[in-house]
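Give me structure tokens for this 230-residue protein.
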Amino acid sequence: MDVFRLASAAAVPLPRPSARRSDSGRLITTALHQLAESLGNAIDAKDPHTSMHSDEVAEIALALALAMGLSPSHASVIHVAGHLHDIGKIGVPDSVFRKRGPLTDDEWRAVRQHPEVGAAILEPVAALRELGVVDMVLHHHERWDGKGYPHGLEDVAIPLGARIISVADTLSAMLQDRPYRSSLGVDHACREIVRCSGSQFDPCVVRAFSRSPGKILRLLTPGAGNGMKV
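Here you go.
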């Protein structure tokens, strides 16, 4: 299926701007982006191993959305959701993030609750709710094959922004050192994204990534896309 047609069909419609919208509306949009970025940085600060993760996810998600042919306004909303995708981790104890050994079942349950906690935190903000940001945060750990969480959604039942953030989130995570493993490296990370197309990830999002992986990877680390063997 044509990637642009699927993206258009699956996208959550955005509200039409009012003809009388003033400069204050644009200031609110700027403030919303800045607040989302600040909150994402605050969450990343809880875990010494995820420095700049929310920034990376937001930038990759923006690039992927544009590569799929989404409008700049829709891509901008996904960018905001990328900054906020892990905000629910505020409810996860710091000891879990800093633990070097395997997590217990209870600790894994606490981690897996972060999409729902994040959505609950953002739900009262009408703009984020109406633009679909809350749903993107809630569903960014769903899988294309329905084996994700929290609701086991599959295929296009998952909001498009969440499908895009899922790829961005996984790519950023694989290229960062974590307590239980070192960075997997660029080539390995790219192969994993492609390998999981149609199972974990929306094939259309993966195709958008595969068309220009070097450009997207340079959003993570300058020069990271050079010398790729993908």
